[in-house]
Amino acid sequence: MKRMVIVDDERLVIEGIKAIIKRIGADVEVVGSAQDGMQAQRVIKNLNPDIVITDIRIPYLDGLSLIEECKEYCPDTIFIIISGFQEFEYARKAIRLDVLDYITKPVTIDKLKAVLECADKKLANDSEGTETEKEIEKPKPESGHKAIDTIVEYIEKNYNKDVGLTELSELVGMNPAYLSALFKETLGKTYIKYLTGLRMEKACQFLEEGNKVSAVASMVGINDVHYFGEIFKKYKSMTPREYRDLKQK
Description:
By secondary structure, the chain is an alpha/beta fold. It has two domains: about 1-135, Rossmann fold; about 195-249, Arc Repressor Mutant, subunit A, CATH 1.10.10. It has helices spanning about 10-25, 35-45, 65-70, 90-95, 110-125, 130-135, 145-160, 165-170, 175-185, 190-210, 215-220, 225-235, 240-249, and strands at about 1-5, 30-35, 50-55, 80-85, 100-105. A five-stranded parallel β-sheet has the order 2-1-3-4-5, with helices on both faces. α2 packs parallel to α3 (about 65-70) and α10 (about 190-210) crosses α13 (about 240-249). The longest helix has 18 residues, at about 190-210. Mean pLDDT is about 85; it is low at about 125-135 and about 140-145.
């Protein structure tokens, strides 16, 4: 039985997908769910599911950024995007991020059944799907590095906000898949890793000033204090409180 994680900021949508899966008798077990990108990242990393269905617009880390990050440690996981009408074009282009398919809201029995059948075929034959990788190679625009400069400047000013690949791609007029590849090629790291590193640098500064850990987490755009602590410890090999106390001595 295939293991699935569902990500959507609306609990009703999550429960609706669960109900549809049960009704159609799909060979799928929903092993986890999340209602924001940060929570989803932890759930996916811990469970390493076969399939992830995620909305494209979720808090803290948008669906495309979530996929980009999770692909690094769950390369075999199949990702399916849910999108509203306004995000339809980005959902379509997300296939080039090695997303299997997309579903437009509302999620119906027929739509979910069709996409799960595609997932079955994909899992049965991992050799399929190489075309998605080739598509990323959208001749490169001459303004590529200028676009990255624009994005880096934007991130520097907005690192404490929910800034994802979807918003950035709109900012520079590129599709999310190409922007993701260009960013990593230019700076040597994914957009999420770059943003996280910047946030941790800023967090160190705020902690050295004696701010409370919860306040610092919010100041760098991470409202989940526990998650902030996990990331910071990976970055500095100590907890935020330990770092602050060390610098205050």
